[in-house]
Design brief:
The protein has 8 helices and 13 strands. The chain is α/β, with parallel strands linked by helices and 335 residues long. Strand 1 (36-44) and strand 2 form a beta hairpin. It is globular and about 75 Å long. Mean pLDDT is 85; it is low at 9-13 and 233-242.
Length: 335
């Protein structure tokens, strides 16, 4: 067997013939500098609906992206047939840098992260005041995920015709979370949609909530020209049925923002969340952590925040709210 030295001549190197007759594989990927910009609206069985300029196209992920995922809300680079005509297919060749990523896990013990949406500015946490009963633990978990992702939270309470909103709003008053309260009559005449729409103007807002809380009904009122299927709450279990099966981005009237409707959730795991980042959602408490012990959880006897609050630098209710949110990883949602 012939051995090649350190300084072989190219003519001495054996080249294996390419039996398929196509170009040899290479690790150099095309740059696609002429690719068009697109916005991912929804994903269905590997096919992605993408908004390119003023038309929607169907695209698939290019092989060169490897395992890099593409999610609703992504800004992408697209090549191929961009006409949007029937039976045409384009390719997504690049995913642009994301400004934010909302993640969740199936539960707190599951290390596998699921990206919900990308590039959102605001997280609307939708909960019913009755039918089904509100779940404060789920609200707390969504708040933690919002703070961790750098999203502004918005609390949307539905079905106020069935139960008052005061008690639940008092629970989150210290957090200063903006809110909107709706009922069925106001949804029917458009007043509720107008009130909520003011909170969504010029933002990309992702809607998250338990099944049956009226999330998709609200989205349909906000974007009346795009009706999505809605369901009813089971009278026995008090739970809703998943009528929304995939995330969908919809433009608000007059291009004044976007709403992203997502399937109903029954859990919101926080395995991916670093508790140390949650404190940054409480800027009034951050200075008080300077004297905390190293790796302080902010919920232990030596935490400097207790003295900070005792000295009058912050409202005790704020510290209580922080610790309640930090404790969500140790508590199951049904506890």
């Amino acid at each position: 067997m012939r051995r090649y030295g350190k300084h072989t001549d190219e003519d001495d190197v054996r080249v294996r013939p390419n039996r398929k007759g196509n170009r040899p594989r290479t690790s150099i990927r095309p740059k696609h500098e002429d690719a068009s910009e697109g916005f991912v609206l929804t994903i269905d069985r590997g096919r992605l609906t993408v908004l390119v300029e003023d038309r929607t196209i169907i695209a698939m992920k290019a092989r060169e992206l490897g395992r890099k995922g593409v999610v609703v809300g992504d800004q992408v680079a697209v090549v191929g047939d961009l006409s949007g005509d029937k039976d045409t297919l384009a390719r997504i060749v690049r995913v642009e840098k994301r400004s934010s990523v909302l993640r969740r896990t199936a539960d707190d013990d599951d290390p596998y992260e699921r990206v919900v949406v990308a590039n959102a500015d605001q997280l609307a946490i939708v909960t019913a005041l009755a039918d089904p009963e509100p779940r404060p633990r789920l609200i707390d978990r969504c708040l933690v995920a919002a703070f961790d992702a750098g999203l502004e939270p918005l609390l949307v309470l539905t079905k106020s015709d069935l139960a008052p909103a005061d008690t639940l709003l008092d629970t989150y008053q210290a957090l200063g979370v903006p809110y909107a309260v709706t009922n069925r009559d106001e949804l029917a005449d458009g007043k509720a949609a107008d009130r909520v729409r003011e909170r969504l103007a010029d933002r990309v807002t992702v809607f998250v909530g338990h099944s049956g809380v009226g999330k998709t009904t609200l989205v349909n009122a906000l974007v009346p020209e795009r009706k999505r299927a809605t369901g009813r709450v089971n009278a026995v279990t008090g739970r809703g049925r998943h009528t929304t099966t995939s995330a969908l981005a919809l433009p608000l009237p007059d291009d004044k923002g976007w709403v992203i409707d997502t399937p109903g959730v029954r859990s919101f795991g926080l395995h991916h969340v670093d508790p140390g980042r949650v404190i940054h959602a409480f800027p009034d408490l951050v200075p008080g952590t300077e004297n905390c012990p190293r790796a302080c959880s902010h919920d232990e006897p030596d935490c400097a925040l207790d003295q900070w609050v005792a000295d009058g630098h912050a409202d005790p209710a704020r510290l209580y709210s922080l610790r309640r949110l930090l404790a969500t990883r140790e508590r199951r949602e049904g506890d």
